[in-house]
Amino acid sequence: MSIEDIIKTARGNIEADLVIKNAQIINVLSEEIYKADVAIKDGIIAGVGFGYKGKQQINAEGKYLSPSFIDGHVHIESSMLLPSEFAKMVLPAGTTTVIADPHEISNVIGLHGISFMREASKDLPLDIYMMLPSCVPASPYETSGFALNSYDLSLLIDSPWVLGIAEMMNFPGVLNLDNEVLSKIKLGIEKRKRIDGHAPYLSGKDLCAYIAAGISSDHECTSPAEAIEKLRLGMYLMIREGSAAKDLDSLIPVLKQYPSKKCMFVTDDRYPSDLKGHINLMVQKAVNAGMDPIKAIQTACINTAEYFGLKNLGAIAPGYKADLLILNNLQDFIPETVIKNGQIIAKNGKLLIEPEKKVLSTQRGTVNIRWLEQDDLKIKAESNTVKAIEVFSGQLVTKCTPSKVIVKDGFALSNPDEDVLKILVIERHKASGSIGKGFVKGFGIKSGAIASTVAHDSHNMIVIGTNDTDMFKAIKELVKSQGGKVIIKDGAVTAKLELPIAGLMSDESAETVIRKSDELKKGQKQIGCTLDEPFMTMAFLSLSVIPELKLTDKGLMDVVDNKFINLFI
Q1: What string of H, E and C letters represents the secondary structure of 71-103?
Q2: What's the average model confidence in pLDDT over 340-366?
Q3: How would you class 7 by CB atoms within 10 Å of its CB: exposed for 0-12, middle for 13-18, buried for 19 or more?
Q4: I want to staple 230 with a disulfide (CB 3.0 to 4.6 A). Which of 34, 146, 167, 235 is the partner?
Q5: Residue by residue, what is the 3-state secondary structure of 281-322?
Q6: pLDDT reported for residue 545
Q7: Parallel/antiparallel/unpaired status of strands 127-132 and 162-168
Q8: Tens digits of per-residue pLDDT, 325-351?
């Protein structure tokens, strides 16, 4: 980039590389829309005005010109795609920058996981910044593949692609002055980088303490009251719309009634089929619900850029990166043209370039379980009533619900007629043989079993089923493929998606992953599952930092009281 050439271009002394003419500029800085031309040189906006000439010119014909969109918090691994395939999905939708938290793969292979994601993200037409995982593992109540301490994070914190410390899920550790937790927070403060939060239902004095520690954002708000309290106390609100956790609808009143300058749109965890429409569909939903279009676009770009200190991103003004969208209207927000670094990269939903696919070795197999027999899955009955984990569609929080199981020959079995199913979490990193056993309610499965190696946050193997035979078959299938998702019915595989990269990601194309995911959806209906996204819901049942009741490989966890509890009543 030549500063001299940009100055000359801005003054009209030399031709721009690209000029977008006759556009309705969406100015997120002054909150207005007006007609102007935009001159771009070396990927930078040199001038906004009239009379510019360019080597290449686009006549916007009065259409809207918007900054492109930014996803403020996403786990790329949750898409099950390599970063190159993820980029192919989100770029045509107008997302040109994401702030990724490689938390999932770090729980499996540690610092190598962060390095893997960084190398796989290099030289893509999608800018991928990263936050360093703060909770590997998320809590001491589960077995992860690795543990990352503050020294480990200090090795990477000064990298320009690192924007800070990722979601601090261990809020009890913050409140109880855990030395290791506080050392990670202090690292972010010392380096003047952001520290993201994760504090569902935290309120009052405890919330004040959490924020005062230096944690400045939260993406776990599910109600207006919770969001308003956090905004009032100075937190930035990351409004999430993932495949399982969908909070935008409930938080629309906050966006409409309160200043939105400290609000951002994020996706957190999304399946590939939900990436075709990305941040742009969140803007669309917010506007359709009555939010001012300019404020909705601010929430999708400049607010996020300013929060993370990306000073040259998220607006249409001289000196900003030429990451732009041409929109036909302010209703659907589907980009006609996507411009990245001054280059046209997508038109009408079609990517015009092919990101380089990078498949990097993860060095070792990551599904390592102790030798199991089917009898190892049994649960000795202490009564016929259990504390079941009840799930709810579209939510990550669960409820402890007393439920009846079938008792036969002294063992507790699934009770499909009452929608009470056995659930197992099997440690898969160190072959320790540790198995958490419990029951879950809300899946509606009438026969067979489902299993996955995607189980937040330590990603042990998780299995739900109506009978031990199908559950045992599911376990064996995931060992064979070194990770994935599988559905078993009557001893046979009805659908399977292999995820050999850390048991989390596929090395195949997005189209292949979507096709196999569709087969899983068909398979889940065949076994009677009533949830729209059972694998996503199941993946969070082992996350011991989201209330109320969860199951890890170490046992049944009361997240509210922060202790293990007896399964039986």
Answers
A1: EEEECHHHHCCCHHHHHHHHHHHCEEEEEECCH
A2: 84
A3: middle
A4: 235
A5: HHHHHHHHCCCCHHHHHHHHCHHHHHHHCCCCCCCCCCCCEC
A6: 80
A7: parallel
A8: 999 999 999 999 999 999 999 999 999
The tokens of 469 are what?
């035979």
Residue 123 identity (one-letter amino acid): D
Per-residue pLDDT at 362: 53
Are 531 and 519 spatial neighbours (Cβ–Cβ below 8 Å)? Answer: no
Q: What is d(CA 19, CA 11) in angstroms, rounded to the nearest whole number? A: 14
CB-side exposure of 394: number of CA atoms within 13 Å? 8
CB atoms within 10 A of CB 373: 8
Q: What angle do CA 87, 498, 270 make, to 5 degrees?
A: 40
CB contact at 8 A, 551 and 456: no
State how beta strands 420-426 and 461-465 pair: antiparallel
Question: What pLDDT was estimated at residue 365?
Answer: 85
> Are 143 and 460 spatial neighbours (Cβ–Cβ below 8 Å)?
yes
Q: For residue 525, what is the enclosing H or E element?
A: helix 510-526
Alpha helices in 76-203 (DSSP H): 83-90, 103-109, 111-121, 150-154, 171-175, 179-190
Average pLDDT over residues 142-171: 95
What's the one-letter identity of residue 448? G
End-to-end CA distance of the chain: 68
Under 8 Å between Cβ of 268 and 277: no
- Name the residue among 5, 29, 1, 25 with its Cα closest to residue 16: 5
276 touches 89 (CB < 8 A): yes
Q: Which two tokens stand for residue 59?
A: 């006549």
Instruction: Give the dihedral sign, CA 469/472/477/478.
Output: positive
Beta carbons within 8 Å of 13's beta carbon, 6+ residues apart = none
Q: Give per-residue pLDDT as tens, 31-85.
A: 999 999 999 999 999 999 999 999 999 999 999 999 999 999 999 999 999 999 9
Q: Is 1 exposed, middle or buried (0-12, 13-18, 19+ CB in 10 A)?
A: exposed
Q: How far is CA 542 from the centre of its chain?
A: 16
In whole angstroms, how far apart are CA 203 and each of 210, 400, 403?
9, 22, 31
C-alpha–C-alpha distance, residues 486 and 475, integer Å: 9
Beta strands in 354-505 (DSSP E): 385-390, 399-404, 406-408, 411-413, 420-426, 435-441, 449-452, 461-465, 484-489, 492-498
Mean pLDDT along residues 297-304: 98
